[in-house]
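Record type: monomer structure entry
Structure origin: computed from sequence
Chain ID: A
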Amino acid sequence: MTVMLELEIKRALRDWRFVLFTVGMPIIIYLSSARGQGHTLGGTSTAKYLLVSMAVFSAIGASLNTGGPRIAAEREVGWTRQLRLTSMSSGLYITVKVLTAAAVSLAATLTIFLFGAVFNHVRMSAALWLASGCAVWLGSLVFCALSVMLGYMFSTTSITIGLMVVNMGFSMVGGLFWPVEIFPSWLRIVAELTPTYHLAELGHSTQLGHWPHLSDLAVLGGYLALFAALAAWLYRRDEIRV
């Protein structure tokens, strides 16, 4: 398992297009949008507020684009069918995919935090850096499970479009690019139903030194259970078809 996990992580990080989209684009958005140090958002500076928002955006992109596309490609070439003839269990295979997505998500989160500290001079105590970073990273496990689910739902040709729609849809509606307070009332209700909104709220609250809200934890936990259950069901369906 360790060898396979190491190979999967290296394979993901060697893809420069993947790194550019999941880390480079959030960095560009963050550095270009957080120049207004005198402005405030969410009760803190613009640079500090957008730090968490773009870390969430980067972590989500890394989580979604690590596991799902690889699963779809391996299904298409029959690799998953060959694995079923070996001693590797299906649970171990999916675990490796989720852990790979989680590792890449962690790298993406740390990179955004590093750029925030170095280039936008964001300052927090070590405890707040750790708390907000862990909140973003652990919350991104929801999207690791979603990525596995989408990998069994889409084909190789359609998963790229599917992931883009899911990523940008959740990110825009969930308030990662602008505060949901400026949304119309109906759109704010929709935003509060998305996992991205609650993941961002989790990061922002821990960044300010507050305890996580139970509602955010409950919604994220519910989405994690839902996506994991759907991924397991789709896997079993795919196994029967093969």
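Annotation 1: The mean pLDDT is 89.
Annotation 2: The longest strand covers residues 40-41.
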